[in-house]
Structure formats: structure tokens, C-alpha cells
Design a protein that fits this description.
Number of helices of chain A: 11
CATH superfamily of the largest domain in chain A: ATP-grasp fold, B domain
Shape of chain A: globular
CATH architecture of the largest domain in chain A: 2-Layer Sandwich
Number of domains of chain A: 3
Structural class of chain A: alpha+beta
Strand content of chain A: 25-35%
Oligomer: homodimer
Distance between the termini of chain A: 41 Å
Largest sheet of chain A: 9 strands, antiparallel
Largest interface: A-B, 50 and 50 residues
Radius of gyration of chain A: 20 Å
Number of strands of chain A: 17
CATH class of the largest domain in chain A: Alpha Beta
């Protein structure tokens, strides 16, 4: 057990998007120095930190220098290339660890891991070929969902198979890449838990929130979720078991499907993200210690916040042109607008979010 | 009336201390770029911004380049030298305006201004010499307080005169500088209002909080203050009158003495600070829009937050060695620790603060 990092220590973050920016902001507010490493010159996080390096992850020499200049290294996205990390893991503690990344980067490894932990999840099969797919569809039945094992996000890299005529071309349509076939879950709600685990094994979760997606992109997160307390507890227990089994340090987003009926809901883990998560942005205005500070606390060996919330919140993502409404949103006394400083607003691009709060009854 | 600044605009801040750092953090979270100008190379705010310039304020060429590179200019301390600002005021809007700085930099100008506004304040006399002082003490009576007109803070530049024997050397003891003599106010409470005024004249104040000083340095700020609602209203009305008379844009801290008795309290304005204020740090964890975002909203022409608070808060400054207790403070689930990233902890130096929150009854 290492001593906690003292104020003034340096927190290195791989990735320069809005999550990196908000992590850097949290680290600074705690008295740490933040250092950003990202390949894109217009990275939003560069605006939030006095020190940053714009280099590719594959530039091992620059990455090693960066690693040596910080006291702990973390990341803001799960598709950090693993090989460069292996190159620097002797130089600096990497939190969460590389094994969490490896697990989350590959849906098959992830699902097998979740199966081992014993949390409920949809039936699945590995699919390496079109022939595999035919056999797997017979096993799981229709409808079902074919997903690439790697690099899927926001609905990219997946196809729903509804009828037998969808099957023959599906594998090739996803580029002939290794896939996972999942039984279709007739869910009535999508939810997520933002959980954290400290270096001492302490865990703390925020209450499970209700997510609503549009075009496969998160649109709103709502707290309270309106789901029965039994299922909130079940989700928390499952989430914390996942973190423990990974010997995880940091914040993780765990997404669930809720199927069955609202009266008798059933929980299934959809996927895990080994990082701060869009569905946790509500914590910025609903909890004393938000997910960004919680992550920095965890990786710095500090005590965790307890995850309680002081206000109810609806978080709404500002996607593409939504952002043009910033002035009206800022005029609502119950809302706080968070914008990412991205120059160009493209369709489907997350430009910011707004938290609308209300008192807890 | 100018249009509000769009996200992506550049906010320039003169001064690199913790107030500048927290302003930069707020600006970034709103999607602005922050630029810092400060003369000290180890300025905490440099850690919070992707762009900063380390030059003296008197370097007019650098200051002009800085002014031209931003869309609005603000400052984090009231002793910004006025002459350099005059040099750049045609290049960029300066908010709050120079006249607010001139008023707050000189206690005599400030008191005459407050008198003109019609807010209650202690009796005072201008003192230009030891002879003036003798005459003024006869007018105001003992005890009374001699203060330099300029550059006083945290109890520096002032002497309490309790007996006639204190009078002869007092003026020289303050360096023979122009002074103000104030009648001693037998206050039982020190308080402050954090008020804001937007470019459209809209005003919004946070509820008046109770301050406790130790060795002339703010130690705690407490909300609610425990004072009767009538006096809270009176303080708000006085504060907002001050902002209106200055045609002020931004956040201001207005400090009050409360004299009389707790049952029949009387309010007197002590002094004003034309900037975000230490006694407003509680807003970071007690209000949706904190004083830092409120200031950025004001100077950017955005709608103001309404100043309501969702939680009660005790803010405690971490001064000098207090900072060594950061780990224990972070372990309290009701507290959030804010540290300034100052390398060296000297006695009397503000190193951070902690907000301890509780639910509003």
C-alpha cells in the first residue's frame, strides 16, 4: 500500500477530450498539477492544464518522458493502445491498471470476465466467421445483436439481426472482424452505475441513474431513476463486485439493461467503461464530490467521497447543433451549462451538457 | 448593450493567485479559453490555463499584446496598477471597470463613494499628517482605527488607537502615508455579501454569510449566518445599491460589521472588494452557480445565476500549516478540500480551504 499522493504531485492523463479536461480541472482544484498527453492539437484538455504534450501514443520516447514526469498515469478513454502502455508501466503507476483496459477493449474478454464475476448478462457467443454466425444465431435465436469485439462505441460496430435474411451478410458488413453475438434483451430501461474503488480497496458508488439514448448516443441521464430500491442495491452490489474482481483503482461506468416489467425488473450488465463516464456528468452538480474528483482521489490514494447526492438532476447532452441553444439554457436558474470548447459542432458530436437540478424531496 | 460572448471566446485574467486559478477553471468549464497574465513565475493560475504570460504589469507592450489577444479582461485582485490599465482600455473591454478599482484602491475615495450611495458606514476623517490625526481623534473619540488609504489587507496598514498615548506615533508608524481615521465599531459579527451585476444591469446576491477572522485573516465563513432576515435583506439592498452606483459588471465582495445587539443588529459597510472574494468560496459547494462562474457569466454578458444555495456550508481557510491536515479533511464525507497548488506553506499564507456542507433544514 503506497502512501497517498501529496498535493503538488503530478497527475498524467492520456487523452485530451472533454473527460480529460474535466479530470484536469478536478486535479487542479485538489492542488495537483495535471499533465495531458494527446495526439490531437486542438484537444479540449490542453486548455485546462498548464502542461501538455501533443504527440502520438505510439511515440514511445515522448510517452516515456511523459510517464517519467508524472507521479501517476490515468486515461480518459478505453481504447488507449496497450502496447505503448506496456512500454511505460515500469516507469509510473498506471491506474486503472492495464488489465482493466484489456478487459474493456474486447467484448469477448469482457463478457467472459463478467461471467466469471457472476453478474447477470445476456447470453452470448464468440463469432469468428460467417459460419460461426449461422451456428450462433441458431443457438441464441432471433432477434440478436452482432457486435465487433473491438472499437465499438455510440452504436458503431453493431448490427441487429431481426430475421434470417439479415444473417448472411452481417459478419462481412462489420468488416469480417472478430465479433460477439448477443441475445437481444427486450429492455424497458437503460441505466448505469458510476462506481469507484480506492487503492485501499474501499468502494463507493453513486446511485444508479436512468439513461436515454437517441441514435445510439446518450441523450439524458436522470436521477432518481424511478426504479425500485431493490434493483438499485442489486446494481450497486454487481458494480462493486466487478471493480473488486479487477482489483480496480479509479472510477468506472457500468451500463445495465433493465428488462422484465417495471414491477418485476431484471438487471443485465451491458458493458463496462474503465473511466469516468458521460452518464456520470450529473454528479458535477448533484454531489459534493463529483466523478472527476472521485477518480483523481482514487488514483491518488485519497479517501473516496461517499457517493451521496444532495440534489436530483437531469443531465442532457448537447449534441451537434443542440449547443446553439447555450444562451437560453444558461438563463434557466435551475440549470448549469458545461461546454467543452470544441471549435466545430458536427452532427453527433458531443459539444457539452447541461445539468438541471431540483431539490430532493 | 453588446452581445454576450460566445463559447470559445477568450477571457483574460490579470493576476495568477488562487482566485485567478478558480476563475480560469470556471471559464473553461463554460467553454471559454482562459488566458492568465501575472508577474510571478510560480503563479497557481498558470497550472489552470493552456495559455499564460509571465510579465510585469508595467511591461506595457506585453500587456497590450495580451489585451489584444482576449475578448474581455478581468482581474483577481484589487491592487492592479491603474496606469497600465489606462494604456490598454481602448484595446479590450475591462470588467469590472477601472473606476471600481480606483474606488476600492483608496479607502478615502471608497468611503466618500459609499457615503454618496447612502449605505451606513462608520464615521471617518481623512488624515494627511500627525496634526490631522490629533484633530480627527478629538472629532471621532477613542478608540478609533487609523488605516492607510492604500495597500492595506489582512490587517496590514492599520493601527487601533485605544488611548491618547497611542496617537503621537501612529501616523509615522504607518509610514507617514495618507490615511483614514475610522470610529471604532463595537461589532459583534463580521459578515459579507457576494453580489453580482450583469451587463444588462441584472443583479443577484448570495445570502449574507458570517465571517470569523483570526489574526486579521479570514478563518471561517458560515451560512446561514444566524442573523435575522431583516438584516439579510438590508445587506442585500445596500450591496446591490453599491454595484448599481458603480455601474459595476462582475462579482463584488461587500464586508459588513454588525453592531448593536443580536436582537437589534445594526449594519455598517466595512469595505468593498471589486472581485471574487474569499468569503464567497462556500458557493463552490453550496450553490449551483458559484461565485467564479457568476463572475465569468457577468463579464461575458451571460445571464446570472440566481444566487440561491442548495446546502448550508462552513468554509474554513487552510492557512500555513493547516494545510498539513489535508488527508484527514479529505476523509470527512461532508467536506470537500480545495488546495491552491502553492509550493511553500508559510505562516499566514492561504494554502487552500475546505467546505463542510449540510442539508438545508
Amino acid at each position: 500500500m503506497m502512501a497517498p499522493l501529496s498535493p503538488g504531485s503530478r497527475i498524467g492523463i492520456l487523452g485530451g477530450g472533454q473527460l480529460g479536461a474535466m479530470l484536469a480541472g478536478a486535479a487542479s482544484e485538489m492542488g495537483f498539477e495535471s499533465h495531458i498527453y494527446a495526439p490531437e492539437s486542438n484537444s479540449p484538455a490542453f486548455q485546462r492544464s498548464g502542461t501538455s504534450i501533443c504527440k502520438p501514443y505510439e511515440d514511445l520516447e515522448s510517452l516515456a518522458r511523459f510517464a517519467e514526469s508524472v507521479d501517476v498515469l490515468s486515461y480518459e478513454f478505453e481504447n488507449v493502445p496497450i502496447e505503448p502502455l506496456r512500454h511505460i508501466e515500469r516507469l509510473v503507476p498506471i491506474r486503472p491498471g492495464i488489465s482493466a483496459l484489456e478487459t474493456a477493449q474486447d467484448r469477448l474478454i469482457e463478457k467472459r470476465f463478467l461471467q466469471k464475476v457472476g453478474v447477470p448478462l445476456a447470453q452470448f457467443c464468440a463469432v469468428e466467421s460467417s459460419d460461426d454466425l449461422v451456428a450462433s444465431v441458431q443457438e441464441l435465436g432471433l432477434p440478436c445483436v452482432l457486435k465487433t469485439r473491438r472499437f465499438g462505441y455510440d452504436g458503431k460496430g453493431q448490427i441487429i439481426l431481426r430475421s434470417t435474411s439479415d444473417v448472411p451478410n452481417a459478419f462481412e458488413a462489420l468488416g469480417g472482424n472478430p465479433c460477439v453475438l448477443e441475445a437481444f434483451v427486450p429492455f424497458f430501461a437503460e441505466t448505469s452505475v458510476i462506481a469507484a474503488r480506492g487503492m485501499d480497496g474501499q468502494v463507493a458508488s453513486y446511485e444508479m441513474a436512468l439513461n436515454h439514448h437517441e441514435n445510439h448516443i446518450l441523450k439524458t441521464t436522470r436521477l432518481p431513476s424511478g426504479l425500485p430500491s431493490g434493483i438499485l442495491t442489486e446494481a450497486t452490489v454487481a458494480s462493486e463486485a466487478i471493480l473488486r474482481h479487477l482489483d480496480y483503482v479509479g472510477v468506472m461506468g457500468i451500463e445495465f439493461f433493465v428488462s422484465g416489467t417495471p414491477e418485476q425488473p431484471t438487471l443485465l450488465v451491458n458493458e463496462i467503461a474503465p473511466r469516468v463516464h458521460n452518464s456520470g456528468h450529473w454528479t458535477q452538480d448533484g454531489a459534493l464530490i463529483d466523478q472527476f474528483e472521485q477518480h483523481i482521489r482514487a488514483i491518488a490514494g485519497w479517501p473516496l467521497g461517499d457517493g451521496k447526492h444532495h440534489s436530483n438532476v437531469v443531465m442532457t447532452n448537447l449534441i451537434g447543433e443542440d449547443m446553439d441553444g447555450w444562451h437560453g439554457l444558461a438563463a434557466d436558474p435551475c440549470s448549469r451549462v458545461h461546454l467543452y470548447g470544441k471549435g466545430e459542432s458536427r452532427p453527433g458530436r458531443k459539444m457539452g451538457h447541461v445539468n438541471t437540478v431540483s431539490a430532493k424531496p
